Structure formats: structure tokens, C-alpha cells
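re the bet — no i am not wrong, look at it urself. input seq straight from the record:
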Amino acid sequence: MTVISPDPAITPEAGLPDGPAEVVVTVPEGPGRVAAATLSCRLHAVIGGAGAAAPLTVVVAAGERADDPDLARVLACARESAVSRGLGFEVR
């Protein structure tokens, strides 16, 4: 997987004309534990790459898999991390 961080980082000062942006992260295929590990890396890269309080909402496209215990733990951790940085976080 290749992770690209915005340069410069998305910050509140940068502003976006249409309100907060959404970054959609999909749950990878595979067994729960493997998918959870990959999803964790993806989410923390997005959250870490955004500036604090950036006008950004991280959206996880999990569907029915959001109830998987391994994925649910990753989602809870990522939500805490995103919210602590002033970012939005949604699971769809």
C-alpha cells in the first residue's frame, strides 16, 4: 500500500470552499483480523496526515462488517484518535 500525505497538510487555515472534505477508507477484503490490521494502518495514516482540526471527516465504508469484533476495536481506536485531533469520523 502506498500512503500519500497532503503537502502541505490540510489545516483549518487552508479552508475548503464547500465545507469539510471527506476521505473515504474502505475495509479491505479478507478475514477480520487481517482486514483489521490493514484498516488500522490506513486509518492512522489518514488521521496522522491531516493537520489538527483540519476541515476533514474520515469516513469508513464498512457496511455489515462494522460489527466484526476485530474491526470494531480498530474503529473505536481510530474514532478516538480522529476526534482527539478535531476531525470528524463516520462509519457507513
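see?? The first strand starts at residue 21 and ends at 26. told u. also The chain has a mean pLDDT of 85. so pay up
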